[in-house]
Batch of 2 targets.
Target 1
Amino acid sequence: MEGEQLNGIQLNEFLIGYLKKRGFNSAAKGLEEDLHHNKGSDNNVSSFTSIDYHNDPELTKLIRSFSQSEDDPTRYRECYSKLRSWAYNSLDLYKHELLRVMYPVFIHCYMDLVGKGHTQEARVFFNSFRKDHEMIHLRDLQKLEGVLAPSHLEEMEFARSLRKSKVNIKICQYSYDLLLQYLHRTESTLMLGIINEHINFQVYSGQPTSASDDIEAVTIVGSFQDTANHINQKEIQWGLLEDSLEDRLEKTGGLLSDFEKGQGESKDGDADDSKKRSTEIGKQGSSIKKLKKDKAGNATAKVARLETSTVPPAPRVKSELALPVMSTDVEQSILEDLRNRVQLSSVAMPSVSFYTFVNSHNGLNCASISHDGSLVSGGFSDSSIKIWDMAKIGQAGALQGEDDTNDPNVGPTGRRSYTLLLGHSGPVYSANFSPPGDFVLSSSADTTIRLWSTKLNSNLVCYKGHNYPVWDVQFSPFGHYFASCSHDRTARIWTMDQIQPLRIMAGHLSDVDCVQWHPNCNYIATGSSDKTVRLWDVQTGECVRIFIGHRSMVLSLAMSPDGRYMASGDEDGTIMMWDLSTARCITPLMGHNSCVWSLSYSGEGSLLASGSADCTVKLWDVTSSTKLTKAEEKNGNSNRLRSLRTFPTKSTPVQALRFSRRNLLFAAGAISKPAS
Amino acid sequence: MVTKESIEVIAQSIGVSTLSPEVSAALAPDVDYRVREIMQEAIKCMRHARRTTLMAHDVDSALHFRNLEPTSGSKSIRLKRAPEHRDLYFFDEKDVELKNVMEAPLPTTPPHVSIATHWLAIDGIQPSIPQNSPLQAISDLKRSEYKEDGLPARQVLSKELQVYFDKVTEWALTLSGSTLFRRALSSLKTDPGLHPLAPFFTSFIAEEIVRNMDNYSTLLALMGLARSLLHNPHVHIEPYLHQLMPSIITCLIAKHLGRRLSDNHWDLRNFTAGTVASTCKRFGHVYHNLLPRVTRSLLHTFLDPTKALPQHYGAIQGMVALGLNMVRFLLLPNLGPYLQLLLPEMVPEKQKDEVKRHGAWLVYGALMVAAGRCLYERLKTSQTLLSPPTRSVWKTNGKLTNPRQSKRKASSDNLTHQPPLKKLAGEGIMQMSSTQMQMHGTIVGLSAATQQTHVGRDIAPRTSATSGTNIDSYLCPLFEYFGESMLMFTPKHELSFFL
């Protein structure tokens, strides 16, 4: 009895100590007071509080281990390596699921150690197990590596969000049981604590999924994930605008079809002529080939139309913005272009015209191509913007004589061939044409956005509002409105006639790197360094979708013309296709091995073109992906999108891509010397 | 990683002499963190400038974001990676003579930025024009070759390629030692688009080797040419290999390479051995009979006592380069009989000719290196297995010297009686051919699995399992053949292990 009582007192001390360490001061005080009270009133020390754990030896053990382990930094390493070797030695079938648990445990062990000020131990711990996670989480590890003091944990956004949130891990019932058994058996309360605190298991019954196919198995955004799920419940109207030009064309299409064919052929002839003029590669047979292709194209177009008739047409929505009125000239030219659009599919490939910047000396930060491909702009690190009128250059070349047009310096040597726009006071990060090509918007590290007129060749407006470098600016599909995004973690909506922003979209956890408008103008999408893409309602300024799945900074975005899908490209070379309504990734497109700078959908949305720092342009068949997903819904198979073509350039990273309305693909990049 | 010590050094360099250890210990991780933070921002700048290399002004603008003063306006300087360190870089600064700078002509103005247009693809097909990547053209070429096999593919060489070929071949014959030719070799080794020249170079090498057997420097140049051609990843050399290999083998085991005494044909043989080995490694899996054929010709040369010593040397070096397994299976079993032939050549009393004696010593050295490496590998794979016997050998080494000398005498006796020698050699060959058969089988069996890349190292454990005892029995007498000096060829710490 005596021993037991002593034990009880010890236990009380342990418990109070533990509570204090954990910061539950009031609880500790309350317990102390209770104990005193008991002592005073009752001689028998076995108070009601201690009775509970007298009778439960498991609990006493647990509490004792808590109080022991608390201040011993080597325990982390010990426990983690035990857990690790257990996971590696577990059954093959369940191993990959158990290994998924290791990464969150690892980073939280590390952050625990840092948080308690054991810098040296933290570093040793980190370095000894770093290799395990390098393959998948290299970038995160590089970020975390620098965190060496408790203050850094507070300061760094990434670490803070990790600390605050839980990790969702999908795990099958049996693996979950295995893990719990192990943790209880070995009394590794430290690990148990971390797992309880930071991991949220989504246990499902049945067999474990295979290792590779489930990319959503681990999502490192826990509570954030919940908000994301919540946000993604919101309704969005992804349909196209009613009474769009395409609609009008469809309606009149039947009447015009004959006219269209005739027109199309004559246009093709024209196009061939211009090809011959601009480059020397016009072969004799090409026009004949072209005609054949055209027939094939028409045939496939018919097939495509049949298919589209089976697929329910995109719903129509009203614009929530007051859209500018289009002048009849512009409207006519767009209609003309739409009529002459070449139908593309996996069998009818587009032609790619490449604009190579020469002598840029690594100074070209961004390039942009107007809708008809006639204007090309470049933003340079010396804060200048240069605009080339390719139509004029073509004419000059034609005047000079047809023989030497393949001279790489198209501009005559004496006189420069571009229009120089000066005004920014920092590197220009984006320069974007308005849809008709009469304005250029540019954003710069000097935190301003400037509007330039290509007719007057001068600066019209300077928009100030961002506090940090503006990474990207994009005109809305109908002009007048534009969206910008910046290092200050916001995206903003502006109109051309006001110098203040109309909306500020805040919510990203890191830089907003790229922005893109939805075809119906009611939404914008932003890609960020926090590895997410968000969709924002322009009218309300609310975030309506969060797309989670990228493993590195998102660099480029594109919206499918039907408004249903979005593609995003990241720093690692992964492209992801998203379904806007469900916020799910349809499929990742793997193939590039470096940054994807640019993405573009073809006019009718059947092909996706991607341009990358690995000096290639790739074409992807995206119709098959959408079809496959329907098949997938039926039989539950995973699908992989196919890459149709890869066009390597001559050591020229592809910085910009655009499909013209007639489905000619333009690409641009600055030639760089291969690294030796 | 910023350490406490580096903080102290930095503090001293800026004039803070009294920095308490606690302060530096606390500063170190913070400095580390800040540097990483700046770099993170700098990388963002780099990405937004659509680059994949970080430049000095990226860091400057990152500092600018933080309202920090940018580091002095250093232009982007290429950092060099320190050899053998993964994360260590340094400035490769050169001394600049002020006078030269003053007298240098003014640089020309940089050309304007301009845009060139071309068709990257027409209806999804890439036209083969100079503006497009030449790799595509090569794959097209390959395809055409595969299609019309049997028929001589008629190819029109572009003018540039013709000039290239003419120049390179001219230099090979006339300027073989010059830096110009060395540059040409490195171009030949790396440039894409040289594939159409492959047949021309092959026949050029084959012809010129026959013509220039007396001309050492030309032979060396031709071998360099062959090696560069074989190493170029863009040249599809396989179809011409059958034409190229005999020329190369010739340079390895020919009787005379060069005419003058000063010609160091041993070097040429070493160089060629490397080429042969790398070729076998690269194309061994495509041509299954390549390795066996090369091995056979080398072995025949080695085992033929009528062949000159330089030829033997070439054969030995060739086999050594092909991997230790070759040595183990083909050289070691024949070492005893061979040394009986060789040793008399090495002593001044028996062999009066200075040059031949030198040659014999070189052959002896090559054999010793081969055997030493073999032994070392063996010891590495199973230290426990071999250490006791070697130790005993080591201990009784004093005794062993005598038998060795007596053996030498015996062998010299043998030399005087010709018939027994021939018989011995004949036996050796018999024994050899059986091993060769066995070897052949092993290689064919294993080629699929290991692609014959590291024949020696990879297969070592397995072969030792299958025919280990057989091999070990050859390894042990090595000490008898070479004596103490054998141990010179096993690395030092292994030596200390024995002591």
Note: DSSP finds 22 helices and three strands in chain B.
Target 2
Amino acid sequence: MGSRASSLLREEDIEEIKKETGFSHSQITRLYSRFHSLDKGENGALSREDFQRIPELAINPLGDRIINAFFPEGEDQVNFRGFMRTLAHFRPVEDNEKNKDLTSGEPLNSRTNKLLFAFRLYDLDRDDKISRDELLQVLRMMVGVNISDEQLGSIADRTIQEADTNGDMCISFNEFTKVLEKVDVEQKMSIRFLH
Amino acid sequence: MALLRLLLALLIVFSSPCKVTALEGDSAEVGLNYSSKSSETSTSTNVTTATITTLPIVIWKWHHVETPYLVALWILTCWLCKLVVELNHSLTSVIPESGLLIMLGFILGGIVWGADKAQTFKLVPVNFFYYLLPQIVLDASYCMPNKLFFSNLGAILVHAVIGTCWNAGTVGVALWACYEGGAMGTLNIGALQFLLFGALMSAVDPVAVIAVFEEVHVNEVLYILVFGESLLNDGVTVVLYNVFDAFVSLGGPKINAEEIIKGIVSFFVVAFGGSLIGVVFAVLISMLTRVTKNVQVIEAGFIIVLGYLSYLTAEMLSLSAILSITFCGVCCQKYINANMDEKSVTTLRYSLKVLANGSETMIFVFLGLSAIDKNIWVWNTGFILLTILFIVVFRFMGVFFLNWILNQSRLIPIDITDQIVMSYGGLRGAVAYGLAATLDEKKIPEKNLMLGTTLIVVYFTVVLQGITMKPFVQWLKVKKATQADLTLNGKINNRTFEHILTAMEDICGRMGDNWWTRHWKHFEEKYVCWLLMTSDARKHNDQIFGAFHKLNLEDATSYVTEGESKGSLAFIRNDDSASVDFKKKLALEYADIIPDIMADMSEYDFGIDNVPVMKNPIPSVSLGIHEQDSKTMPNDLNAHHLLEQHLYKSRRYNRPTYSRSHYKASENPDEMQEIFQRTMRSRLESFKSAKMGVNPAKKLSKHPKKDSTHKPNGKPADPNRTHPYGDEDFEFSADSASSSDIAGHFSRRSTNAPRAGVDNPAFIPEMDTSAPMRNPPWQTETGNNTAVAPSQRAQGRLPWTPTNLRHLAPLRMSTRSTDSFAMADASVDEEAPEEKPGTHHTRL
């Protein structure tokens, strides 16, 4: 299956993806075969339904938000390059990459990009701010029914207060980065892709 | 030098009992540290056989208390040693505490030797393994950072199992090879004995290295790897030791392939069986704590006892006891912490710490003490030096090799400095000594050489490596732990990250580490929590909510501190809007965390000041508390304050046994006068109403007596003396008649009594003497605040319950806790005249 799938992928595509995302050749072909098996419509692109067919995502409280993150604004198809671009956020930061940062722009798996990915999950209206309501929605998804709305509301308030430095009762991306300053985002937002 | 003198003085105290015991020649088995050597010198001069000619008033019964007395004295000595060691902080920062304790052990041993000319006391393996080790392991495993442990369990197991086997095998084989090569002269040791020795030498001691790690805050992965490894490694070592021991007793020729396979199988059965026993006990403990709500006083004890039983049970089944108690502690901590009351959790935590630190101290002192024995010192330079060389070299090789394998599959590889520190952290400790001391002299003729070498290795690693560890870690610039403060943002986003990662793994179609975590969580939520947690605890088991609660508690604490620094919590009355104090609090909180936020403080203030006009109904948590209760809060606080000022001081404070505040009562003679007058008035009233009563004569006879004691000085300076005993007896019987546990009833009855018009005059005197300080103010001044006032007072009397601070967050104040405090208060007050200060907390 893998060989058939990878044969659909042209070498120059692989090279480009490699350059853009930093994945290795074998990782790209492996992920392409996964992409191919998810693509039930066989049109070289994934729709939301294709993602929703993954059973585990249905029980992930943030599943739908995460699926949305794959799709650029206003589109409901994602091709392999877009797919890889999103996945590249979660590539672990390797030692030799740390020094490269300055020369070749910000890689997709940089700390900022990882944080931005998480930030966008909250920020539904894309105004670069997490409002109380947006936070509350995500919180509601993540906590059980045992916590009352009032309690959740005060949790949200407190969370915003913790991060909010300019007093607009919203969390901007800068504030978001700052409040997570001490969290080891590089490690906590990375998964291991098989080589 | 004062230090030395103190020690000498101590030891003089000891040497006399020592001599007595030496003379009386008791069997060594009973004593904790009492060796059998002394029985040789027995001269059977027994006191007890003497015939009694006259009734003795006082007898010298040393013989009766000898064993427990010696044990207690030794415990005291060891703990005093720790005290001495900790006196000088600059010293402990250079030499680790364990090393210093060993040195003090040398000195103590020297003094005992000087007094007895023989080694009277030493660490007996049985005592070590049954009475000293379990609590250390239980404490370590109970306090283990759970999540970190399980997420690194793979690496820990690899190091603990394979690493230990590697160390044992290579050290044994290498020593044997050197022996065959003639590096040690002639010794009566075979290859198997060398392997046995290698096995016992592979036990890594957690204590010393962890102390250093905690001090320099090494990163958490390194911490958990070394900590987890050294903990599990102890268990594995014991198993390995037993297998080799069995081989040794079997003898060389009889060992064939079958036996070796049996040995390997037994290794795994013992190790995993022990762990399983631990898990079973963890389940038992968790289930038990679901129902121990009514016996909160001993709740914490259950965990200790059951943990100990898990150790003994595994030992009984010849499974690994250390692994059993380790897994017991690690697995049950989450559930019992959720099930038990916060007070019990604190109690358990502290009592475990006391036990563990206590026995740790004893172990190190006795490690030093045991060295002063000329019998065990069989010197063999080659053997000793080669052992030290091999354990260090092979430890390094093993750690590097295993980490290289592990790094192939680790997301974040263990870097080279961490690996060096891991290898260097392989200190040998008490387990190695305990195992060496267990060696059977009949099977291993060179036992003393092995024992002596073990001691030298322990001293070498604990003292030398311990001293160099800290500079070494600093010199290598080992990655430090990021000091993560508890923030809701951190908690929430950690959770978000987890969800994102699992989703990504699902999308990529591979079962990663997160897959396991998530499925376990799912399973746990569905079944395990249902089985092991009370429904109450399940409800509050949300991590985000937990963090929220913790933060609120912290707020409350700092709120109180701040309030107290200004004299009284009542300062809140002066500030109309509660947001003001929250702002101060925040300023305080952030001031010492991030200095650059300080620069934004003006902005910050601005934001907070705006809070009340914001559209959000509940702008912040702390604010939420204030605002939600804004109607009741100020009233409540006023009431509290009022009560605080106007409640009469109990005479309890008056008693000289409570030295801390006994002179306070005399501050206010007016109060006494007032009480006295009021009492008299109410008595008069009740006297009138009871005129037709059953037994007026008794009452009449009683009152003058009482009055006469009260009248002359206006205040009863010492209730002990002035209290009429007849009354006391009477009170007591009335109390027990109304079944002592319903103390709440009692106080209620006494509050109701005057209004209801008492028809039994018997209750009047007691009501008047025990309750007058509380009754009048309630009725006259504050009306419905009866439930709150005693709780606050009870709080003052229970200094060991920091979690009572919940009262400051009325949001979380439950009626249950108020009730129990009211009851506590009532029972305490009632017992006060009975002069039993020691008993009152058992009633809680």
Note: Chain B touches chain A through 61 residues (CB under 8 Å).
